[in-house]
Amino acid sequence: MAENHPTRSRGLALAVLCAASLMVVLDSSIVAVALPAIQAGLGFTPAGLSWVFTAYLVAFGGLLLISGRLGDLAGRRRVFLGGLGLFTLASLFAGLASDAGVLVAARFVQGVGGALASAVVLGMIVTMFPEPRARAKAIGVYSFTQAAGASIGLIAGGALTQALNWHWTFYVNLPIGVVALLLAVRVVDADRGTGLRAGLDVLGALLVTAAVMLGVYAISSAVWGVLVAAVVLLAAFVVRQAKARTPLLPLRLFRIRAVAGANLVMVLMVAGLLGFQFVTALYLQQVLGLDALRTGVAFLPVPLVIAVASLGLAGKVTARFGPRAVLLTGLGLVIAGLLLLTRVSDSYFTGILPPLLLMGLGAGVAIPALMGLAMADVPAADAGVASGLINTTQQVGAAVGTAVLAAVAASRTASLGPVDHREALAAGFRLAYGVSAGFLIAAVTLGAVVLARRPRKISATAPEPEVCVAGQA
After folding, report:
1. Among 19, 194, 195, 222, which one has the highest count of C-beta atoms within 10 angstroms of its own C-beta?
2. What pLDDT sits at residue 195?
């Protein structure tokens, strides 16, 4: 198939990889609007209910980096298929759960499978599409799944919970996962990794996995003593990587300006964007009084605009003006939208929808540009770990943004005690939008200073693995 229809075959392989990636991204948000129904059905305590979310984030964020490196060593297709199968199976057990403990355990395993599957996808895409214009277009498709996935998850979660029940927020993964597995086996050709005999830094893997898991847990749960332990473990990991013969995360990657800069910008950008979605979901329900389904529908314009921008516009403007200029311009549009939201009114159509459209356009062009910068100069032998790294920084940014903005909004609301509760909530959310804009302003500043105007090409410092992908002989 690859020899007769290389473009068609590569396109189908890209569709399969992005569909699987979208499913994993959806799962981080699809249960958000179903949480009240899950609590009522399984008898979760208010504190215990947060683990439906946290168990997934801890496993997913903690294992992305090692999953990416495992793909470099054992073969990215093999790791992708194993992770996708595990994620699909865990979704079945989550849907069948009749006990709170079973659901939390299933969510943790979902996070493991999601990390294995998604960590290697970007590395597979950049290897599959070596031509700059085709790569930019492919990254635009992938970026759509990352940027719009959370919004689509809110829509799907509201619709499934209201029309059926919360179990279907997990069952919906089964047909998607099975079809993606069957197609991936057929259209995504195997690659040959550098080999496990090259060595996997087990100690480094344990250190970084524990550090990221503890860090995500600490930030999500506001347990700051645990965060100190996470920082100590992360420092130990860096020391280990400097001394290890075969490091899990080669520190030479951070000497590549685009890699270091793009990952720092990603943390700040996602902190603002994902935190904004969390705050807006609460604003729509607690201030405007929308139910779960209408809250999901209210987000619908965001993925639609992101689709137009990332699939139809991002590749063209990036090729014309360069990824740095497109990134900074896109982030500027997002900042403008967030600043408009700091003066949000009680009207969805005049107060919320225009900023949402502006932010969707900005994110739709900025995220593909940033993904391209993060991978442009990476040697092929390190594509998996670089892909895992950019996914890890996304998760850290999401955890930081959600925790900070939730705390800011709650603190502002509490400080206005005598004021009408609805007005106090709105004031808290408006302040959170301002802080979210601050994250994005920091991202623009850092990107303007650190990222080069044009990414440079470097020679691989390690021998490239022989790779056979769909559409290449």
Report:
1. 194
2. 61
